[in-house]
Specification:
Blueprint (H helix, E strand, L loop, with lengths): L4 E8 L5 E9 L6 E12 L2 E13 L4 E11 L8 E9 L1
Length: about 90
């Protein structure tokens, strides 16, 4: 896995009813990026519940970075999340 992620948490975003996702991601791609964009896909059983974008800035090769992103889905859906994927979309 070129970009393993861990310590991913979902909670209520401060000041809104949306979900805040946070965690850490490692860069084993061998490339450094000024900005790397990832798609996060939330699942409820085998159906897609929601998607969003996570951006990681100044992401050097072989480094680990913390991330946070606000997802456009009500925090009351957190208990319904049964799985998720984080997929590299692009980087420059």
């Amino acid at each position: 896995m070129r970009f393993p992620y861990f310590n991913v948490e979902f909670k209520k975003n401060y000041g809104s009813d949306l979900i805040l996702v946070s965690g850490e991601i490692r860069n084993y791609s061998g490339k450094s990026y000024n900005t790397a964009a990832y798609k996060i896909i939330l699942y409820r059983k085998s159906k897609i519940l929601s998607t969003g974008i996570i951006k990681v800035y100044d992401f050097k090769a072989h480094f680990t970075r913390a991330f946070e992103a606000v997802l456009d889905i009500n925090y009351k859906m957190i208990p319904k999340i049964t799985g998720f994927d984080i997929v590299f979309e692009s980087g420059f």
